[in-house]
């Protein structure tokens, strides 16, 4: 048994290290200094009586004791989120923070403009957009809503809206003029995801369509890829999005012959508990209406 009872702060810190994969990532997510996280983790391990993680040059791995603690820590995080929701006072005024996790493209195209709409219709709301490729945990309260590229498979997660649209190749006008009228995929210089995101569908589709596929430029940052595309470095695959904030503005759609067949899917997801909050429901309905309108435009 631990020499002292474990507190929620102890468990929360351990969970941040376990899920972040490193002390530095945990420090960023908890908004603490790296030395503070290391010291508190060491104190926790001293209390437990055995190491919970193995420190390595590239991050941390759970020990056998850490693996035993992880499921209980995850349940504690869910209960903490449940307690927070249950203790919130009901109010008729929409106010407070709603966090939305999303991939970088949808965050830029959909969520930033949504914030402008919410400032007019519900000025008491604060929208916090967490843009990244990783999927955050709604069960543990890392966000209230999520725009995901895959449909959730948990019964505790609700799919509130969805959007499907085709993807196409886009390039700057200057770069497009250098290509044949209907270029083959292997004639194009491609801009794609760099590790650790090379497994994403766009990379896989291009690799399947082009023998010995070698991109001209890659980055782990979506907006860096887009900047390279606009600068004429090459072409990239983007969603065919018929709205004013589309990332394709100023770019030219290439008529590939033939092109890789990839379809974008986007799912608006909430945990059952968070979906009960009026402010979360309001933001979800506003965002769901945008997705539905885009789907109708695409179908038309």
From TrEMBL:
Transcription as UniProt keyword: yes
Keyword Repeat: no
HTH lysR-type domain mapped to chain residues: 6-63
Pfam family, one: LysR_substrate
Signal peptide start and end residues: none
Family: Belongs to the LysR transcriptional regulatory family.
Keywords from the named record: DNA-binding, Transcription, Transcription regulation
Name this polypeptide is given: LysR family transcriptional regulator
InterPro entries cross-referenced by the UniProt entry: LTTR, LysR_HTH_N, LysR_subst-bd, WH-like_DNA-bd_sf, WH_DNA-bd_sf
């Amino acid at each position: 048994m631990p020499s002292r009872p474990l507190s929620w702060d102890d468990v929360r810190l351990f969970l941040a290290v376990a899920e972040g994969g490193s002390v530095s990532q945990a420090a960023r997510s908890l908004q603490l200094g790296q030395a503070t996280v290391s010291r508190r983790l060491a104190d926790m391990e001293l209390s437990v009586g055995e190491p919970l993680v193995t420190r390595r040059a590239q991050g941390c791995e759970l020990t056998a004791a850490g693996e035993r603690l992880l499921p209980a820590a995850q349940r504690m995080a869910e209960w903490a989120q449940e307690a927070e929701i249950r203790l919130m006072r009901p109010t008729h005024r929409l106010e407070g923070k709603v966090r939305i996790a999303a991939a970088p493209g949808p965050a830029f195209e959909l969520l930033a403009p949504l914030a402008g709409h919410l400032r007019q219709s519900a000025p008491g709301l604060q929208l916090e957009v967490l843009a990244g490729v990783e999927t955050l945990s709604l069960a543990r309260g890392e966000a209230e809503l999520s725009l995901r590229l895959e449909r959730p498979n948990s019964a505790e997660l609700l799919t509130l809206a969805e959007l499907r649209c085709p993807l196409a190749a886009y390039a700057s006008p200057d770069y497009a003029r250098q290509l044949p009228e209907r270029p083959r995929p292997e004639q194009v210089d491609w801009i794609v995801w760099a590790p650790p995101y090379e497994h994403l569908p766009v990379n896989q589709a291009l690799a399947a369509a082009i023998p010995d596929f070698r991109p001209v430029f890659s980055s782990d940052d979506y907006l860096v890829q887009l900047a390279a595309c606009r600068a004429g470095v090459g072409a990239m695959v983007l969603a065919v999005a018929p709205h004013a904030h589309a990332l394709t503005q100023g770019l030219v759609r290439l008529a590939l012959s033939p092109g890789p067949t990839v379809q974008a899917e986007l799912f608006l997801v909430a945990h059952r508990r968070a979906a009960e909050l009026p402010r979360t429901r309001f933001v979800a309905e506003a965002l769901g209406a945008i997705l539905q309108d885009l789907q109708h435009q695409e179908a038309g």
